[in-house]
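SEQUENCE-TO-STRUCTURE ENTRY
===========================
What this section holds: a protein sequence and its matching fold, both as plain text.
Question of interest: how does this chain fold, as expressed in backbone structure tokens?
***
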Amino acid sequence: MGDQDELKSQLDVFIGEYEQANNRHDIARVVQFIADDAVYWFSNGSFRGLPSVKSAIEQTFATSLNEVYEVQDLEWPVVTTDLAVCRYQFAWRGEVAGQSRSGRGRGTNVIVMRDGRWQIVHEHLSS
């Protein structure tokens, strides 16, 4: 397996573990994937810095119960030993205000290698 394939495999695992942490609504685990200086763009706003991003994710967890979030069609257009960019489709389903809801959208993440581990520095989700 070439270096690019090995890196993509590592990054696939990283995104899969991030997806699982989100599906468990385990904020302590989710924030381990996110850089302190991350910027997240969601359909409900932009969030700069880990405390702001964490708060936005916690709000989502509080309003969307039993949510299942699924990354689909993951692609890696840029991969180096210290920087990666992925794009994907996503789907979610859960319970919002007592009603079953679902949605789909697109995502892009910028991931950097810092202190020997991958960290998300930017996430952009749009529906």
